[in-house]
Design a protein that fits this description.
The structure holds two protein chains of two kinds. Chain A is α+β, with helices and mostly antiparallel strands. In chain A, 31% of the residues lie in helices and 21% in strands. Chain A has helices at 2-11, 17-23, 28-40, 78-85, 111-122; strands at 61-69, 90-95, 102-108, 128-135, 141-142, 145-146. In chain A, the strands form two sheets. Chain A has a four-stranded antiparallel beta sheet with strand order 2-3-1-4, covered by helices on one side. In chain A, α2 (17-23) packs across α3. The radius of gyration of chain A is 21 Å and the shape is extended. In chain B, α8 (180-192) links the parallel β5 (162-167) and β6. Chain B is globular. In chain B, 49% of the residues are buried. By secondary structure, chain B is an alpha/beta fold. In chain B, the strands form three sheets. Chain B has a seven-stranded mixed beta sheet, with helices on both faces. Chain B has a three-stranded antiparallel beta sheet with strand order 9-12-11. In chain B, strands 1-10 form a two-stranded parallel sheet. The termini of chain B are far apart. Classes of the chains: A alpha+beta, B alpha/beta. Chains A and B meet through α1 and α2 of A and α2 and α11 of B.
């Protein structure tokens, strides 16, 4: 059940417990216990909402920063990653294979704020060798969801 | 003007059509009436179709279909049913399963031969039989048997003229399936009376209580079975119009002649895409099956909560609840449901008289969509029960 449960709530975390129980052929108590267990084990880390900010009047700029760092003896990349992810404005930090080490995603109100973050906070860290900042111009698909258009059901209403 | 074909004029248009005309005039209708998946064809399959076009693969294929496709079909049936078909002369690729039904019947019957058709079932078996100058013999499947065909029912209609048994399982519209044990009983009768079987297994990938069993995989049955399948339901490829028939070479040879002179070959782009579907589509099928199963449970539970009788169907993507308690015909009920609550469901009678008292409810819709539909359905029956 675990895998099926996760794949359902990954797409729709707001689904009612009652409906979950029905479609998983289980009962509400069992499903609730399983969800609690998944939360305790840190498998479910949170329930978020996917928002297309471009459709609102609120200004948001997303920056994608490639960071090259010097790993530290005994601690690898973990401590430098921690120093970066502790900044609340940092949304995401990944350790990456390839031409750079850390991918940092930042969401701010303006380009300037992102630029300030990079020049004042990130680039000044001792272990940071270099940064390359990319600004996201348009989000087509985010977390498996296509943002641009809502698809209509184009099927005939009745077919044999 | 001279008159048109009497035979064709005598054929009733599909019962679904009438209902469709009614629906199409209305707005804000929530439909539960489709017989096709709501998923888009998986992207890698579409991409393969596009790639075929880019490479200029736009010519006819051989009459039987692309050889690589026939090889993949043979592999597929070997790995799912354990039976072997020769890609060179025992497989034909057709324009949907529908064409295979038509040319299969035409290839086998002589005037007056009887084709045994269990109903409720897909709408085309009966007209195709009539157009082939054969005689349809209907078996009205029973709700108490969960709309399975029994050996007794089959034996009761057999005459010296009996030629083909149509075996439409997993079934549209009931969702009923036949287990191995059920099929073994049927196979005994088929062999006893030397019948052919046309097994329409287009929903074979959509079963929810274990794997589908083909009657062709039973001992001594492959030699007398036309196995029909296709890509529409399992890979969500209805619009690509691609199906196939597997049968002994003697039958395929005759079917090929009709196909050759009427169709030439199935759409080339679709055939290239289908090779990819069979090679790389297993995960997609699994994902869709899981999703259908969730919705199936949702609907069954919804009907149970409304105290509407509905046997548990284990195949296809339909449930077939009984509305007999409301004292209306299927058509009256469906029409009223449509007009008052704007929910479109197909009356059971569109699939044969034995569908009377039932509705075909499709769950090829998102859960959200089904939820709204069930709310409206509940409003409707609450009013009826007052």
């Amino acid at each position: 059940m675990r895998e099926e449960l996760l794949s359902i709530i990954e797409k729709n975390s707001r689904i009612a417990l009652k409906d979950l129980a029905v479609i998983l052929c289980s009962d509400e108590i069992t499903v609730a216990n399983e969800l609690a267990a998944l939360e305790n084990e840190g498998i479910i880390c949170g329930y978020q909402t996917l928002i297309d900010w471009d459709k609102t009047t609120i200004e948001k700029v997303t920056g994608l920063i490639e960071v090259r760092v010097t790993p530290q003896r005994g601690r690898g990349f973990d401590s430098i990653a921690e120093r970066i992810y502790n900044y609340p404005e940092v949304k995401t930090v990944y350790l990456i294979s390839g031409g750079f080490d850390l991918l940092v995603i930042l969401e701010e109100k303006s380009l300037r704020e992102i630029a300030n973050f990079v020049s004042d906070k990130l680039a000044t860290l001792d272990d940071v060798l270099s940064t390359a900042t990319h600004f996201i111009l348009k989000k087509y698909k985010d977390n498996g969801t296509i943002l641009s258009k809502k698809k209509d059901d184009e099927r005939e209403i009745i077919t044999p | 003007m001279k008159e048109l074909s009497k035979k064709v004029e005598a054929i009733k248009p599909s019962g679904i059509r009438k209902f469709f005309d009614l629906v199409s005039e209305m707005e804000d209708v929530i439909s539960l009436g489709v017989g096709e998946p709501d998923f888009d064809t998986p992207w890698h399959i579409r991409d393969e179709g596009i790639f075929a076009l880019e490479r200029g693969k736009t010519f006819y294929t051989s009459n039987l279909g692309l050889k690589p496709l026939r090889v993949e079909i043979a592999n597929y049936i070997k790995r799912t049913q354990g039976i072997e078909y020769c890609p060179d002369n025992e497989i034909i690729v057709t324009v949907g399963g529908s064409e295979a039904i038509d040319i299969g019947i035409r290839a086998m019957v002589n005037e007056g031969d009887e084709v045994i058709i269990p109903q409720p079932s897909y709408v085309s078996y009966e007209p195709c039989t009539i157009l082939a100058n054969a005689k349809p013999v209907i078996i009205n499947l029973k709700e108490e048997n969960e709309f399975r065909l029994t050996a007794k029912e089959l034996e009761a209609v057999i005459t010296p003229k009996s030629k083909i048994l149509i075996l439409p399982f997993p079934n549209n519209p009931t969702g009923s399936i036949m287990t191995r044990e059920n099929l073994e009983e049927i196979a005994k009768i088929v062999k006893k009376y030397d019948l052919y079987v046309m097994s329409d297994e287009i929903y074979s990938e959509l079963t929810y209580s274990g794997k589908h069993v083909s009657i062709a995989s039973l001992e001594g049955m492959q030699e007398r079975t036309i196995l029909i399948n296709g890509f529409s339901k399992s890979y969500a490829m209805t619009g690509w119009r691609l199906g196939y028939a597997l049968a002994p070479s003697s039958i395929i040879k005759q079917m090929t002649k009709i196909h050759q002179f009427t169709i030439m070959c199935a759409p080339t782009t679709s055939q290239y895409a289908a090779v990819n579907a069979l090679k790389n589509g297993d995960e997609d099928v699994k994902m869709m099956r899981t999703s259908y199963n969730q919705r199936r449970r949702f609907l069954l539970n919804a009907f149970k909560e409304m105290n509407i009788e509905c046997f548990e169907p284990f195949g296809a993507f339909y449930v077939f609840p009984s509305i007999k308690q409301f004292g209306m015909t299927s058509e009256e009920f469906a029409t009223k449901l449509l007009k008052e609550e704007r929910v479109a469901a197909v009356p059971g009678t569109a699939f044969g008289e034995s569908g009377e008292g039932h509705l075909r409810i499709s769950y090829a819709y998102s859960l959200d969509n089904l939820k709204i539909a069930m709310e409206r359905f509940k409003n409707f029956i609450d009013k009826l029960r007052k």
